[in-house]
Amino acid sequence: MSRTFEDLVAEAEAVSVDGWDFSWLHGRAEEQRPSWGYQRLMSERLGRVSAALDIQTGGGEVLAGARRLPPVMAATESWPPNIARATGLLHPLGALVVADADEPPLPFADEAFDLVTSRHPVTVWWQEIARVLRPGGTYLSQQVGHASVAELAEYFLGPPPPGDLRRRHPDDARREAEAAGLEVVDLRFESLPMAFFDVGAVIYFLRKVIWIVPGFTVERHRDRLRELHDRIEAEGAFTARSTRFLIEARKPA
Q: Which residues in the chain come in under a pLDDT of 70?
């Protein structure tokens, strides 16, 4: 027997969205992962360096999954619930978590790190990344690409302005990295299927990934959510596509 719209809404509104762990969606939504395996790549790079920085670490879950952290490991985060979560997770591993507003400058000295990493950063300050990297150092990041989950955004907000579909394009990331003096040594892009199997999964996702539908609340979008619930009940899922790109850039020696 399927659950009612009100039950699904109440459950999704009550659950915590702190951190960057999406395990609550297990069995309720699915998304194909990029083929390159970001956490494995990040872990390999961390094992080769003496000092590293993870920018916008979220709740620290991705960094904590690395096999071994370097002797000097720092992470930044701006959202207070995530700062507390990341501190509890990463401090026992020897990593320092620094509260940072995600605005330049980064709170570190010039040429402080051999490696800078970031998974799904909201903003990328390329000049600051170049500044804190040592000569020969590397920036490795998996980022959300252009028009990611556009189907879901359009369902709630209507068709986007044409320029919005270009935002976060990997070609722009390459150009900005090179303008900061970095050499892009790897750039890969993939468009991946994703599906939501109940309206509660959609609510949880939009509460957590706040830039998909800015200003999203259940109360504000209740009518559209109810229509979406009926659609998922009839069709089995709401489908969309997420876009991701991997970029690796090196500071010249």
A: 1
Do the beta carbons of residue 182 and residue 14 sit within 8 Å?
Answer: no
Q: What confidence score (pLDDT) does residue 190 get? A: 98
CB contact at 8 A, 75 and 34: no
What is the phi/psi pair of residue 195, to 5°?
-145, 140
Q: Which of 132, 126, 67 is nearest to 98 (CA)?
A: 132
Q: What is the pLDDT of residue 21?
A: 86
Axis-axis angle for helices 5-14, 199-208 (nearest 10): 30
Q: Cβ distance 196 to 236 under 8 Å?
A: no
Distances (CA, A) of 217 to 48, 51, 173, 203: 44, 41, 31, 8
- Angstrom CA distances, 140 to 39, 53, 85, stand at 11, 11, 23
Report how far residue 171's alpha carbon sits from residue 93's, in angstroms, rounded to the nearest whole number: 36
70 CA to centre of own chain: 23
Q: Domain containing 189 — which CATH number?
A: 3.40.50.150
Q: In this structure, which amino acid lies at residue 134?
A: R
Per the structure, how many domains does the chain have?
Answer: 1
Tell me the residue range of the domain where 206 lies.
5-250
